[in-house]
Write a structure and sequence with these properties.
With about 475 residues, the chain is an alpha/beta fold. About 50% of the residues lie in helices and about 10% in strands. The protein is built from 22 helices and eleven strands. Strands 3-4-9-8-5-6-7 form a seven-stranded mixed beta sheet, with helices on both faces. A two-stranded antiparallel ribbon has the order 1-2.
């Protein structure tokens, strides 16, 4: 699953236009000055990201000699929709908004054409599983879905389904935001008692990042240890590396080719914003991320069955991949995958962008010590508090923009305690320093416990999880 670069929000097409011009000049200067390949690649990536943002906001490609004010078609992009595009930008690589509250997820549901996870659906999940819904569901952290009712229909009629999620291993250490889909997927595996496949898209990271194939695969093995440490059942879980598994599974590769045949270059450019200068590996990769959605990609698990529906828990930025998959599925006679979408885990500096492994100050890593966690939260966590203690006591803090409170909604399981914190902070009874201390007291043991579990994960355990094999489950 793709990661995203951090980017500062640009609030108007003209600002974006000027940023692109400045970034283009920087790239030329770096090349002329024979800067390092890493530095040039990073600058070029930012330039392409800015151009994609410009296209999203304006509906057309950036032209160096045509600023937005002089563009006759700019008028048609100056209505309310254009303002929304400038405020919120979401694709598989970039998440950006100008709002301190973060992305407007209700608008995103409309934009992506998914369905809101409402109280009725949460109640239905509770009835089907006999378990209290996970706090990620109760608090709207998983907020949107595609065809979840269909999955529940199948489950209630004793028909099988399976889970699929993934990780793009771009660094040795994962951060706490990366845990969100795995924590929730573990809960789904437990309450529905179904098999799970986890795709490690090391091929994707090789194509997008300045990594060797060996580095990308080594990150897969390291990240797999963090995933296993979440507590997945080895008898029901298959973790696979694209670089390794594609060569071992004719069923998987056949599905990749089927998908590739049914998606045009124009469609992929439209969905993902690829340009003519992108390598062909990037253009063909979406088919690789789509293939695990179909059960016969895993013949050792599902034998020759191609009719078992897949449920994919993931962050909403991954939805473009699966909109494409759902469009292709009927044309190759497979069931459409269902999805459960989560919100983004915000960067420490604020909810305008999501936590990124490429910026150590925006992230709390699973390798951080108790002292590092305390320092990062105290120094970098964006506060919704007032400028002075007196003002804060009088007017209270703003939980909607306070990053420490946002993090507590993810990791503090006690609903009553969370609500009391919200009331105390909003009324001014609790100060920012006290709120940060509460978060630190939650994060330190959570990460220490994860680190202890990870230490128990041996290379042999990783190999067992990653060996293609029959899994233990009971499908009629």
């Amino acid at each position: 699953m793709a990661d995203m670069p951090n980017g500062e929000p640009c609030t108007s097409p003209l600002e974006l236009f000027n940023s692109i011009a400045a970034q283009g000049e920087l790239v030329r200067n770096l090349k002329a000055g024979k800067a390092s390949k890493d530095e040039i690649d990073s600058a070029v990536k930012m330039l392409l990201s800015l151009k994609m943002s410009y296209k999203a906001a304006m509906g057309e490609d950036y032209k160096a000699d045509c600023p937005p004010g002089n563009n006759p078609s700019a008028e048609s992009n100056s209505g309310p929709d254009a303002t929304e595009a400038e405020e919120d930008f979401v694709d598989p690589w970039t998440v950006r908004t100008s709002s301190a509250k973060g992305i407007d997820y209700d608008k995103l549901i409309v934009q992506f054409g998914s369905s809101k996870i409402d109280k009725e659906l949460i109640n239905r999940i509770e009835r089907a599983t006999g378990q209290r819904p996970h706090h990620f569901l109760r608090r709207g952290i998983f907020f949107s879905h595609r065809d979840m009712n269909q999955v529940l229909d199948a489950y209630e009629n004793k028909k099988p389904f399976y889970l699929y999620t993934g990780r793009g291993p771009s660094s040795e250490a994962m951060h706490v935001g990366h845990l969100i889909p795995f924590i929730f997927t573990k809960w789904l595996q437990d309450v529905f008692n179904v098999p799970l496949v986890v795709q490690m898209s090391d091929d994707e990271k090789y194509l997008w990042k300045d990594l060797t194939l060996d580095q990308a695969y080594s990150y897969t093995l390291e990240n797999a240890k963090d995933i296993i440490a979440c507590g997945f059942d080895v008898n029901k879980t298959f973790i696979f590396s694209d670089l390794e598994y594609m060569g071992q599974s004719p069923g998987f590769y056949k599905n990749v080719v089927k998908i590739q045949k049914h998606v045009t270059f124009n469609q992929v450019k439209g969905i993902f914003g690829f340009t003519d200068s992108d390598c062909i590996g990037k253009i063909s990769f979406p088919a690789v991320q789509a293939a695990p959605s179909f059960s016969n990609s895993f013949p050792q698990i599902f034998r020759d069955r191609a009719d078992i529906q897949c449920l994919i828990p993931c962050a909403i930025d991954q939805d473009p991949y699966f909109r494409m998959t759902r469009d292709v599925a009927p044309r190759i006679n497979y069931p459409k995958p269902a999805l459960l979408h989560s919100t983004f885990f915000p960067a420490l500096q604020g909810a305008q962008t999501k936590m990124s492994a490429s910026d150590p100050n925006s992230s709390i890593f699973l390798t951080d010590t108790a002292k590092q966690i305390k320092t990062k939260v105290n120094k970098h966590a964006f506060s919704g508090g007032r400028d002075t203690v007196e003002e804060h006591r009088q007017f209270g803090g703003n939980c909607d923009v306070d990053v420490s409170f946002m993090y507590l909604t993810f990791f503090l399981e006690d609903d009553d305690k969370l609500e009391q914190i919200r009331k105390d902070y909003t009324s001014g009874a609790m100060l920012t320093g006290e709120l940060k201390k509460t978060l630190i007291d939650v994060l330190q043991p959570l990460i220490a416990e994860h680190q202890a579990r990870r230490k128990e994960v041996t290379d042999e355990m990783v190999k067992e999880f990653m060996t293609p094999r029959q899994l233990s489950f009971h499908f009629q």
